[in-house]
Structures are given as C-alpha cells and as structure tokens.
Amino acid sequence: MAAPGENMRVNADRLWDCLMEMAKIGPGIAGGNNRQTLTDADAAGRRLFQSWCEAAGLTMGVDTMGNMFMTRPGTDPDALPVYIGSHLDTQPTGGKYDGVLGVLAGLEVVRSLNDLNIKTKHPIVVTNWTNEEGARFAPAMLASGVFAGVLTQDYAYGRKDMDGKSFGEELARIGWVGDETVGARKMHAYFEYHIEQGPILEAEDKQIGVVTHCQGLWWLEFTLTGREAHTGSTPMTMRVNAGLAMARIMEMVQTVAMENQPGCVGGVGQVKFSPNSRNVLPGTVVFTVDIRSPDQGKLDAMRARIETEAADICSALGVGCAVEAVGHFDPVTFDPTLVASVRKAAEELGYSHMNLISGAGHDACWTAKVAPSTMIMCPCVGGLSHNEAEEISKEWASAGCDVLLRAVVETAEIAG
Ligand SMILES: [Zn+2]
Questions:
Q1: Distance from the alpha carbon of residue 87 to the mean position of ligand 1, in angstroms
Q2: For residue 275, what pLDDT is reported?
Q3: Is the pTM of this model over 0.85?
Q4: Are 28 and 388 contacting, i.e. CB atoms less than 8 angstroms apart?
Q5: What stretches of 10-152 show up as alpha helix (H) in DSSP?
Q6: Quick one: DSSP state of residue 414?
Q7: Residue 110's pLDDT is what?
C-alpha cells in the first residue's frame, strides 16, 4: 500500500474553475483583469477568497496592512505554520494569473489535504499579501515589505495614488484594516507559486521552474544636461548634445551587461527628453538604467562601472551628468532545503523541471528576510505578463500545484 500522501494530486479542474471565477471580479478591457489594490474590486476579490477559505475550514487573521492569513490548524500546538502566499491584486491591464495563481493554489493545497484526510503537524496558512503590484501605490511588494521589516507601516500608509488618496485611507475605506500587528507572525517556511513572467520554461519545454534565487537590482536615474539648440542652425562642432550622451550610455550599458553573461541584465526602459521637440536638441535628458543580477558582487561592480563610464562619456561631450539610485533590492538566495524539497517533488511526480532565477520581485523576496522561503514557477505563454493577454494552461497550473502540495506536506510533516 502506498504511504500516506504518496499518490496525492490536486484537483486540476477545481483550481482552474477558481481562477476563472476570481477573474470575473475586476475584469479588464481585453480579457484580463483590472483588480488594483484597495479598490472595490480588490475588496470583492478578498471576500470571495475568504468565503472559499472558510468553507474549507480555514480561520482568518488580518493584520494592520490588510494582509490575509487563512489558517488550517496543525496537530502540534507548538509548531510554527508553513505559509503559502502570493497576491490577488493586479496591474491596471493585468492578467488572470499573476499572483492569483499562488493564492488560489494555496487554497487548492488545503482543499486537497481535506479531501485526502491528511493532517499535518505544522499548521498551513494561505496568505494574500496586500499591494504586491505597486501600480496604484508604489513601491511594489509594499505590505510584505512592512511584514519583513524592510519598510515601515507609517511609510506605507502615507503612499498616495494618482488621485492623491493614501494607502491608509483606502485600506480603511474598503474595510480591511485588521487587528494583528504586522510582522508579528513567525513562519516555519514560506512557499510562493507564481507564473514565470518570462519565456524560459516554455522555450525549454519544462513544466516546473525550481526557483533558486531572486535577482537583485539597481535603478539608476541619470540626468544629463546639455544645451538646447536648433537642430538646423547649430553646427555639429558647437553642440552640447545630451541626447547623444544618452545614446552612448545606453550602448555602454548593453556592453557591460553582455560582458557579465550569463545571468546579468541591463537596459533602459524610460527616457524623458526636454523639451522633446523634433527640431530642438534636448537641454535635459532624464532616463533610468535598470541593472539586475542574482550575484551581489557582480551587481555592484556593474553599477560602479556604468557610473564611471557614463561620467567619461558625458565629459567627452561637455554634457553634465548626475546619477541618483532610485530603486534597489539585494539579490536573494532561497532556502536550500525548501528548494531541494521542490525539486524532489517535481522528480517524484515525473514533471520536467529546471532551475530558474526570478527576474522580477515577489513577496517571497521579502519573506526570505524573516523565514526560510522559496518559489515554484509555472510557464506562461510567450513569457507575456503584466498584460491582459497573459495565458497559462490548466495542465501547467495543476502540475506546479501538485509540486507545491508535495513540498508543503513534506515541510509541514504528515501527522501520526
Ligand atoms: Zn505577481
């Protein structure tokens, strides 16, 4: 006879139906979702999730950041819980799976354990983190950041959206200020299941991403000061061309990233020319360089080299150059025991898998500061995410959820 839990699988249809049901709340304009944090749609999504959890026998705790913790008790009163979490909020033109998959997969794990009549020594807590996306209230991963002690609650409450409404006011307005002190909970382990938001798993034809690291990043905002001048009547030898300096810096960033392969990336996604007129050389160019690496040493070395070479490029053109670091995360190494448990689960289930480094930030990157943490990734079609056309298959979703179930049960330990 099989040992308890040996053949356990989640219910693929139930997980998928839940994803589709949640997607009806805060629909987008092109088949995806607009369920931004602390909107009425967010509140409705929370209530639906709460009702599903309570029907599955979970009890709810909510902290002062609105983070939801749905607990399935364990048999050992002294054992710290195993957490499974992600986020139900979306981008303004977001998909149906980014974040949502991880929360509803946590619920599916609990429902499957209920079906199989499996009790665990450690409690299991399914978590919905408030405002992971940061689209409405920057920065991203705001509430898990407060939970991990990286940001303060006062700072979070004061964040404002484009209409000037604050996070604290909006959290109160939708009725989700809980009574738990944020960060007071202690975790035995934290698992997050998330879509890849990149093209690697699909291209490599793998079902499971075993996430070993989360990239660190620097956002470097450059302000280049040249001289506004007519593009027709200013001789080439008399120009102080901030736009040209920007172009050379962009090329240099590409070179630096390419010389740090594999693993490092660098590029520019935002440029502001001033005055941004067809026939005027820009007096000011502001742009942000985004560099990332899972290796702290490489990341900091790339930053130093980019700043030095940018200064040289600008001085050769007579352009003023100021740099400000406007964003930063340290790289994260996920807990080796949990990573091994995920890999073993994929192997035992016969699912194809590969190691991955998370290119984006996730709540797990913050929980890793306070608890052993790891992530599992699911392929997504074309690597497309933060887009209403974001797509995954039912089979992909349930394969990763099977792995999650197995790894969580191993970590939470089957009772008796
Ligand atoms: Zn996400």
A1: 7
A2: 97
A3: yes
A4: yes
A5: 12-22, 40-55, 100-116, 142-147
A6: B
A7: 98
CA distance 153 to 157: 6
Residue 57 has which token pair? 């026998």
| Residues 106 and 412: beta-carbon distance below 8 Å | no
Cross-strand pairs, 148: none
Residues in the chain: 416
Under a CB-based contact definition with an 8 Å cutoff, are residues 187 and 334 in contact? no
Question: Ligand 1: distance of its center to the CA of 362 in Å?
Answer: 6
Please answer whether residues 208 and 403 qualify as being in contact, where contact means their C-beta atoms are separated by less than 8 angstroms.
yes
C-alpha 414 – ligand 1 centre gap (Å): 30
Residues, Cβ < 5 Å to ion ligand 1: 98-99
- What is the CA(117)–ligand 1 centre distance, in A? 31
Distance separating the N- and C-terminal Cα atoms of the chain: 17
* Alpha carbons 400 and 352: distance in angstroms, whole number: 11
Instruction: Determine the distance separating the centroid of ligand 1 and the alpha carbon of 184, expressed in angstroms.
Output: 24
Compute, in angstroms, the gap from residue 173 CA to the centroid of ligand 1. 24
What Å distances lie between residue 203 and 200, 256, 382, 387, 391, CA to CA? 5, 26, 8, 19, 15
To which residue do tokens 């992971």 refer?
Answer: 132
Which pLDDT does position 1 carry in this prediction?
43
Please give the Cα distance from 273 to 282 (Å, whole number): 6
- Take residue 289 and report the two structure tokens written for it: 């360089």
> Rounded distance, CA 325 to CA 393, Å?
39
Per run of 10 residues, the mean pLDDT along the chain (length 416 residues) is 68 98 97 97 98 98 98 97 98 97 98 97 98 94 97 98 96 98 98 97 98 96 98 97 98 98 93 96 97 95 98 98 93 97 97 95 96 98 94 98 98 93
Looking only at Cα atoms, what is the longest distance across the chain?
A: 87
Give pLDDT, residue 5. Answer: 56
Q: Are 372 and 355 in contact (CB under 8 A)?
A: no
Residue 302 CA to ligand 1 center (angstroms) comes to 27
Q: How far is the CA of 350 from the centre of ligand 1 (A)?
A: 27
- The three-state secondary structure class of 175 is coil
pLDDT at res. 326: 87
C-alpha to C-alpha distances, 337 to 189, 341, 374, nearest whole angstrom = 10, 6, 9
Handedness of CA 145, 151, 156, 162 (dihedral sign): negative
